[in-house]
Amino acid sequence: MASVLSGEQKAAILLRAIGEEAAAEVMKNLDPKEIRKLGTFMHDTAHITQEEEHSVLADFEKSSATGEVTFDGKDYIKTILTKALGPEKAARLLESMNSRSYPGLDALRWVDAKSVAQMLKIEHPQTVAVVMAHMEAEQASQVMTCLPPEMRGDVSLRLATLEEVQPEVLEELSAALQDILVASTSHAMSVGGAKAIANILTRLDKATEGGIMTKISERNQILADAIRSLMFVFDDLVKVDDRGMQELLKEVSKEDLPVALRGASPDVKEKFFKNMSARAAEMLKEDMDVRGPAKVTDVERAQQNILKVCRKLEEENRIVVLGSGEELV
Q1: Whole-angstrom distance, CA of residue 258 vs CA of residue 246
Q2: What Å distances lie between residue 110 and 13, 35, 62, CA to CA?
Q3: pLDDT tens digits for range 52-62
Q4: Please, are residues 139 and 185 in contact by the beta-carbon 8 Å criterion?
Q5: 294, 259 in Cβ contact below 8 A?
Q6: Which of 154, 168, 229, 260 is most buried, taking the most CB atoms under 10 A from its CB?
Q7: Are 111 and 226 found together in one domain?
Q8: Percent over 90 (pLDDT), the chain
Q9: 306 and 270, same structural domain?
């Protein structure tokens, strides 16, 4: 029997379901009191059941359908999704909203990569390839890393040569996965936790982030320390290797860089300068001097823009973050 969830708990579950970037955009439009409440519930979403997850999404869908949550048509939905997720992810999401649903495959979005890999490692490589083809690229790459080394090559080959799969096959596979997930509900699966809130906090402005972390620290200092250890902030760019920093410099906005470095530590500034030509570094320093003081909000915005580029390059395996476990958070 599912427990009764509070409004804050339902909101935290829904925020995680729509993804990190979209959740960050939503939280920007909430007042500090609401954000602090939500922040304290984000960690607890790691302990919810599948029944509770499905119930929250069903409630939201029902409210949308009955007019309790209103939208201004398909164009409006497309616009907000594009702003929140970017055109590519928004297009995929809109396509999935209009396509046939396979609950078992869809439910894997809620499960961490290690648990998915644990479920799939006993399956035939062709089956694994079909499952991974229905995942977001980021999740699929994480699952691939967690698979036994001897499986990766075979799965990759089959995934690369995979063509259309009959709906009947997908329905059978989806049903089988649902059975496995239901049988696994008695075992702990990481579907949220400190990493989820850390990924969201790194996308918020300093004031909002600080308010949330203060509230979490008041209630659970150990959890707060764990979240901080998972957060990747601008000063952590010293962990990017030199080759990666040179890749980053090719992609960042020339307008953002001098502003962002205003609020950076000396080590980060030096990291950027040493990976530029002497002339380029000198020109950047002169630009910073000419611009003079910058508003804190402008500095934070510029730093967030550069961090977004850094995350994108990390996802594309074009940069390496020294000392990181698996990925840039």
Answers
A1: 16
A2: 10, 23, 21
A3: 777 777 776 66
A4: no
A5: yes
A6: 260
A7: no
A8: 11
A9: yes
